Every structure is written in C-alpha cells, then in structure tokens.
Amino acid sequence: MGVTINTLHGEDDYTDKHSGSVTHNGHILDAVIVGPFHRLKSLLYTCVTAEYELNEIISADTGLEKNDSVSGFFPLVNGQIAIDGSIHNETRIDDRCSLLDIYIQNGADFFIIKDDDIGHKPTVGSRIRIIGKGLFVYPTFT
Length: 142
Description:
By secondary structure, the chain is mainly beta. The chain has 2 domains: 3-50; 58-131, CATH 2.40.50. It is built from 2 helices and 10 strands. It has helices at 37-41, 115-118, and strands at residues 3-8, 17-24, 27-34, 47-48, 50-64, 72-75, 80-92, 98-104, 109-114, 127-139. Strands 1, 2, 3, 4, 5, 6, 7, 8, 9 and 10 form a 10-stranded mixed beta sheet that branches. A hairpin with a 2-residue loop joins strand 2 (17-24) and strand 3. It is globular and about 40 Å long.
C-alpha cells in the first residue's frame, strides 16, 4: 500500500531532504521526505512504497494484546507519531544488538528499528507500539 505524498516544500536541488506531508492508511503525517526534489515532485498525489525512519524514539510499549487490525502510523500531539505493529522478524547484528522488522498490516508496510534503540528485546510475534518524533520517508523510485 505505502504512502501518498500530499505536499512537498523546498526546491533546493542541493539537499535531498524536504518537508512535506504524507497519508498512510488515511492518516496525514508531517514528514521529511528524502530524495531529489524534481523526482519527488513527480510522485506527488500518487501512492508509493517507502522505507521509514524516526529521528527520535521516545518510548516503546510491548506485551500488548496482539491485534494487527489496530496497526498503523498515527499522528499525535507535539509532532509525535505512534507506530503500532507486530514484531515479524529479528536479525541479529551481534550479541548486543538486533534489527526488528515490525509488520504494519494497515498500510502493508514494515518498519525496522534496533532493539537497543528501545532498551529491550521484545519477542518475535509480539505487538509493539512505538512513540517517536521526526518521521523520515524514503520513497521508492521506479
């Protein structure tokens, strides 16, 4: 499913980071959209697949009742965003760090974080709700 790029600000071809907004599963989110401006402009108002990143993780709740129907990206107050999904896979980097693939059913996306960014290692299959700031969207160009 991906995101729809709604707005895009800035025409500086010397930077690849532009402020704007995206819609993910009906929710409008402020974001930094990454890529050359002229290429991003061609994606306006279309649904594109993307990768996502948060500039800051404020909290992560695990041990929640598993319910993929409530998954998604949700705007909160003060520029915060909630990402709710299920841990789909763990890729071990070393003894102290793993990458966690989080499946977002509503939007059909994955979001990846390091377990050391959230301070603990939730189990594969469990639900997680992350609160963060600074959503970065990296659209896929065809």
